[in-house]
Design goal:
The chain is of the alpha/beta class and about 450 residues long. It is built from 12 helices and 24 strands. The chain has helices at about 30-40, 55-65, 100-110, 130-140, 175-185, 205-210, 245-260, 275-285, 330-335, 360-370, 400-410, 430-440; strands spanning about 10-15, 20-25, 40-50, 70, 80-85, 95, 115-120, 145-150, 150-160, 165-170, 190-195, 215-220, 225-230, 240, 265-270, 290-295, 300-310, 315, 340-345, 375, 380-385, 395, 415-420, 440-445. Bound molecules: shikimate-3-phosphate. Shikimate-3-phosphate binds near residues 174, 176, 179 and 201. Pfam families: EPSP_synthase.
Length: about 450
């Protein structure tokens, strides 16, 4: 499944207060990893709460092409039958990864140490994104790559029959790069070491340990995480419960904060410390946001998040917090538009290489809706509203989070907001519109809008 469906313009408008209790679909990062590790483990893994979005279904399709048996049960759970490390078969056709950066980068890691050839393709968004960041360490491990200029998709990779373990210092704060090297290390003899100077989401490490991998994490004096994985140790099948995705929860949460009179609960949200930077930032902005029912399942913390409409104030979000909220800046910019004073966001260089150049896409969307802001190379400053806002049409550039962020804007702005293509939301949050509607928000196909 590739994200090539015709564009579906959507329009959101201000309406009643948002009320109710909802659960967002499973975490995207954990869902990809559960299917991949299940496919490499010996035996049958069970996954509940899997995110059934285009990106994750592309990983299911990819792992099937490599020989795993993956099925959805009648009760909505998924079973994954793996055949053990080193078991990947050569796919008969190119693997089309659609819009899914995480999926393809992690799959490159797996493919990079199996002596088989894989060709990966993707949609226009994914074909613009840099793959060199994962190909560089995989080449050091012995993989051969045929790629067009700039290491972009489409590309082909052939893993070495005798991969070499490496010690790799991750040059950019990226969980995808870290994870690709660790997954490559699974089928590599000896110890693969990843040094991560700035901590990023650690779902790969946690899940690898859960599946029985020999993995250790040490923090050095400079605060860098040193992750050591001993390769060629079989993984054993597990049961994985996928908690709700905090990056998806961000949209109804911010909608409730900015729509007057709102009060909602988002249940069962993942609270991994490397993912909760947005919630801390919102609390600093004065949000009435509380978390309870905190518990742990499958090595991850989750809880219920309660939010009420709040008078927000602008804050400075420091660069070091960026990895823990990297996907949340588009929607934080919307919250900032409703805050008093200015919100300064620093350390945003990685936003340039997401599903779109998110810094440019957010700035253009703010401009289209009359929101004063200033975008630098790696900073964004948003001024809280001083006059009427909304009324613009936003170009989504095949980026689900740009689409959802600006639909949230329209729920609280003076005039409706249109996004040029809402179909791309299906890559990560297929129930977004239903959940906003269940809470009382108004999002229509643009053709249906009232005059
Ligand atoms: C992800 C890592 C992040 C994030 C992406 C999911 C992951 O990307 O933006 O949505 O699951 O590892 P980077 O590793 O490029 O920062």
């Amino acid at each position: 499944m590739s994200h090539t469906s015709p564009p579906v313009p959507l329009t959101s408008r201000a309406g009643a207060a948002l009320k109710g209790r909802v659960a967002v679909p499973g975490d995207k990062s954990i869902s990809h990893r559960a299917l991949m590790l299940g496919s490499l483990a010996i035996g049958r893994s069970h996954v509940t709460g899997l995110l059934e979005s285009e990106d994750v279904l592309n990983t299911a399709k990819a792992m099937r092409a490599y020989g795993a048996r993956i099925a959805r049960d009648d009760d909505g759970g998924w079973t994954v039958d793996g055949a053990g490390l080193g078991s990947l078969l050569e796919p008969e056709e190119a693997i089309d990864y659609g819009n899914a950066g995480t999926g393809v980068r992690l799959a490159l890691g797996l493919a990079g140490t199996h002596p088989i050839a894989t060709t990966f393709t993707g949609d226009a968004s994914l074909s613009r994104r840099p793959m060199g960041r994962v190909l560089e360490p995989l080449r050091l491990m012995g993989a051969e790559v045929v790629a067009r200029a700039g290491d972009r998709l489409p590309l082909s990779i052939r893993g070495s029959a005798a991969p070499a373990p490496i010690t790799y210092r991750v040059p950019v704060p990226s969980a995808q790069v870290k994870s690709a090297v660790l997954l490559a290390g699974l089928n590599t003899p000896g110890v693969t070491t990843v040094i991560e100077p700035i901590a990023t989401r650690d779902h790969t490490e946690r899940m690898l340990s859960g599946f029985g991998a020999e993995l250790s994490v040490e923090v050095d004096d400079a605060g860098a995480r040193i992750i050591r994985l001993t390769g060629q140790r079989e993984l054993s099948a597990q049961t994985v419960q996928v908690p709700g995705d905090p990056s998806s929860a961000a949209f109804p949460i911010i909608a409730a904060l900015i729509v007057p009179g709102s009060e909602i609960t988002v249940a069962d949200v993942l609270l991994n410390e490397h993912r909760t930077g947005l919630f801390l930032t919102l609390q600093e902005m004065g949000a009435d946001l509380t978390i309870d029912n905190i518990r742990e399942t499958g090595g991850e913390r989750l809880g219920d998040i309660h939010v009420r409409h709040s008078a927000l104030k602008g804050v400075t979000v420091p660069a070091e917090r960026a990895p823990s909220m990297i996907d949340e800046y588009p929607v934080l910019a919307i919250a900032a538009a409703f805050a008093s004073g200015r919100t300064v966001m620093q350390g945003l260089e990685e936003l340039r290489v997401k599903e779109s150049d998110r810094l440019a896409a957010v700035a253009a969307g703010l401009a289209a809706n009359g929101i004063a802001h200033e975008a630098g190379e790696d900073t964004l400053v948003v001024e809280g509203r001083s006059g009427q806002i909304g009324g613009g049409t936003v170009t989504t550039h095949l980026d689900h989070r740009i689409a959802m962020a600006f639909l949230v804007l329209g729920l609280a702005s003076d005039r409706p907001v249109t996004v040029d293509d809402g179909s791309v939301i299906a890559t990560s949050f297929p129930t977004f519109q239903d959940i906003i509607r269940d809470l009382g928000g108004v999002i229509d196909a643009s053709g249906e809008q009232a005059a």
